[in-house]
Amino acid sequence: MKNIFKIKFLPLIIAGLLSTTGCSHLFDEADILNSPNAPTDVDVRTLLAGTLLGMSLLHEDTDVRIASMWSREVNGLARAHFGYGQYIVSSTNFTWRNLYPVAANARLVQQKADAIGNKRIKGVGQIIEALVITKATSLYGDVPYSQAFDKENFPNPVYDPQLEVYQRLQNTLDDAIINLNSTAVLAFNNQDFIFKGDLAKWKKAAYTLKARLYLHTGDYQSAVAAANLGMSATSDDALVPHGKSQGINFNQNYDFFRVKSTGDVGFAGAYLPVLMTSRINSLNTKTNETALLNFFRLANLEPNTDDGAFTNDAPHPILTYYENQLILAEANARLGNQTAAITALNSVRTALNTGYFNGKTFSATGRLYENYVAADFAQNGLANPKNYSSAQLAILYEIISQRYIVFLMQYESFNDYRRLSKAIPVVELAIPLSVGTQKPQRLIYPENEINTNSNTPKPVPNQFVKTAVFN
Length: 471
What we know:
The chain has 471 residues and is mainly α. The chain is 46% helix and 4% strand. The longest helix is centred in the first third of the chain and has 22 residues, at 119-140.
C-alpha cells in the first residue's frame, strides 16, 4: 500500500486532479496551488476545499462508470469500455491513486481541526472520509481502514473485514454528527462548494449515508431511523457543481461522453431504457417517464449531452433526497410498513413531477408521477406489472425500479444489483448479463496495491467473487 502515501498531501493530489479533470473553479484558495512544498502549512479551510474536490471527483470516475455498466444502466460499446462492459477487467484497470490520498487528507482535516479546537470542520472531514471509504469497501470488499493512515507504524496496512469496515464507518459518522453539534465556530462557507458551510445539511448528509450503510447490511429498523433524520428536501442534495468551460469545470460524464470518448459508452444494449420504456404507455396510468428517458438519452441511444442529464454544466450527485426517501421506502416495505413505504415513495414521485433531477429540470411533456394508493399495488393493480399476489412484493418492485432509474451514473446502482439478490424478501429487476453466466460482484484490487502491500488478500479475488456484505 506504499502507493497510498506517495501523494498523501493535498497540493500534490490537487495538481494531479486538475491536470486531468479541469475543476479548479470549485475553489479559489491560492495556497492549494502555491504551496506544493509546504503541505503541512496549508490551513484547515484550504485543506478542506481541496479534499472536497478530490472526494467529489471520485464520484464521477472510471470506477463509477464501470459500476454503471455492470448494473447495465449503460453499456460499453467501443475500445476499452467494450471490454469493461463484457466484464473483462484485470488489476491493471483499477487504481487507488486518488481514492486513499483523498481519504488521508480527510483524516488530516480532522487532525488540523483538532489542533485549533474546531469540531465542526472535524465533523465535515469525518463525513468526507466516510464517503470515500464507503465507496472503497462497497465496490472492493475488504479494504485497509483501521491502519490506512499511519504510514510510519503500518507501511503495509491490514485489510479489515468488510463488515467491520461498515461498523467503523457508522462509528465515524456518529462522531461526525456529535462534532457538527459543537458551538466552536470557524466559518468555511467559501471553501465548501457542496453546502456553503450549512451544518444542518451536513448532518442530514451524514444520516443519509448511515441509512445507506444500514440498508446494505439489512438493518432496516436502523435504516428507517437514520433516513428519518436524513435529507428531507431536494434542496438538501449534495451535488458537485460544474460549468461550461472546457478544461476548467466540465461535468466529467460530459467530458467522457462528448469530448474524450464519444461512442465508447451508451444506452444501446443497456437495461435502463428497456425498464423505462416498459413504464411508458403501460397500464400504469399514473406514470409517464417519457420526459425523463429523453432527459437521459438521445434518439440514437447516446447519453443526452445536448440538453439533458449530461450537459457540461450538469451537477453530479453524491447523496440525494431521492436516495434518502427511497431508502425509507424500501426499508419500511421490508419491515411490512406499507403505508410508510408508499408515503416515502410518493415523496419522490411528487418531486419528480416538478421535473427536478439532480439540480436540473426535465421537460413537462411526457412527465407524469401521480401519487400511489395502496390499491395500486394489489393483484392486477396498475402499479403491479408483475402481478404479484403480495402487495409487499409489488411495492418493493416499484421502489427498486425507481432506485435503479434515479441512480443513473452512480455506483449505488451496482450495490443494489448485488444487494437485491440476498435482501429478504427477494425482489429483483430482470437485468440480463452482458455475457456468460456469472454476475460481476466486485472491482479488483489495483495492481500497484497487490505489488506493494503484503497484506493484500491472496489469492486476489476476481470480479465474480462475492463480498461479505452482498453475499
